Amino acid sequence: MSPSAASADAEHLDVLVVGAGISGIGAARYLKTELPAKSFAVLEARAASGGTWDLFRYPGIRSDSDLHTFGYEFKPWRDEQSIADAPRILAYLRQAAAENGIDPHIRYHHKVLGASWSTATARWSVEVERTDTGERTVLTCGWLFSAGGYYRYDQGHTPEFAGRERYTGTVVHPQHWPADLDHAGKRVLVIGSGATAVTVVPAMAATAGHVTMLQRTPTYVMPVSRKDPVANALKRLFGPRRGYALTRRKNIAQQRLVWSFCRRHPQAARRIIRWVNTRRLPAGYPVDEHFNPPYDPWDQRLCAVPDGDLFAAIRAGRASVVTDRIETFTETGVRLESGRELEADVIVTATGLNVQAFGGLELTVDGREVRLADTLAYKGMMLSGVPNFAFAIGYTNSSWTLKIGLLCEHFCRLLAHLDAHGHDVCRPEPADPAMPTRPFLDFGAGYVRRAVDSLPRQGDRMPWLTSMDYRGDVALLRTGSVADPELHCSRAGAVV
User: Is the domain of 290 the same as that of 393?
Assistant: First the structure.
């Protein structure tokens, strides 16, 4: 789409936010509160807000971060559950939107197809498709803010399995869970060992005949309390707002301590995790076969199991773990490379996500296509060479929303800075084009490795590093200056 595709009477807004999930609702709240004079809209392709927490419907879906840090800083989490299920999180998000007057700004069934930047007009022309009618329209905006996360909402990842067509039972992917699936009393096979698998297994085991978790490689799994007694005590003593703030500080420090310990002392961390697992599993259980990954803790994200529910299901005999590789599907289940056969009435392919930056949004700048792999991430929120475009990507080693809040604060401060200096346009450009780079998400998870070549990259120094450290980001994004020699600002029509 060229800029000329935008008609002269196209609706114009100061900011367009793409996505009405946890990041988009947060961004809208900060815009409305910090920059009340700015016009904005939130475009959501689906028919409802909440993003992940409305889309995913598989059994047991919940957070794997505590809601005192996964929740917004501006809205206390009042529920007694710290590791909360999806309905509670969704209610919280929608309440946050309602309380802050965000609902009137959300436009449902609006899918963004592409956006073209024109330096001459200093605005984006955004092509939008109505998913309910198929009608296409164009909006223009001064800033485009992508809040859609980093995975595809329409398609999960399922590897090619030999013999898949031979299987006569039911196969489901957690991202597309059928509402009418009845697994009561049935044999269930869950393929995978990540956060989704360790959630689905104990939830289905409550009514299934038996659930088997089949994994190629073990994952680090740690029990956590579903309810945080310290948090609930603080809220009783100091009230919901002050108690929430204190709990948030406690949990931020706790997350940092655990992550730092695991990175600095991986062998000690491995021994502690193994000891905890052994205590939760039946006597004589082969812990090293099924719960001893070949990589160090936090090379990939640790999986949390509330109140040790996965271990409880194993102890009760309702669930089991098999570590092996699939040779082929059969008519009644799968045959493994070891020769063992696992029969199942239902197979759940908890095999991960498909990463897709910015919801697949196609960007052009003055007619030139933006290739994400050729760009560098500036402060983890903008792209080199792309004016007036920001995005929200959270932490991989801590609660997602901790970083989202800081990014939204910084974004609003940046817009206020531009207004104060009479600028309309800003574009990050590295001072050293030869700066060494590495992947944007420097993380060992399979879903990241599969997509690394299609994502932006990061540099080896600030402001081109994508920080995963909350304390450092507070200094950079909350209290640090928005002015930067590598962020070029100008008035409309001037060369940036």
Answer: no
CATH number for the domain that contains residue 312: 3.50.50.60
Same domain, 130 and 14: yes
The partner residues of 490 in beta bridges, in order of sequence, read 425
Number of folded domains in the chain? 2
DSSP E strand boundaries for 63-122:
106-108, 110-118
The 10s digit of each residue's pLDDT in 283-342 is 999 999 999 999 999 888 889 999 999 999 999 999 999 999 999 999 999 999 999 999
Q: Which domain holds residue 392?
A: 3-153+355-490
Reading the block at residue 404, the tokens are 């989202």
Instruction: Say if residues 205 and 186 touch (Cβ distance below 8 Å).
Output: no
Give domain status of residue 48, yes or no: yes
DSSP sequence for 329-392:
E-SSEEEETTS-EEE-SEEEE---EEE-GGGG-EEEETTEE--GGG-BEETTTEETT-TTEEE-
Give the single-character DSSP code of 259. H
Owner of token pair 């995790």: 273
Is residue 16 within 8 Å of residue 144, measured between CB atoms? yes
- Note the pTM of the prediction, 2 decimals: 0.92
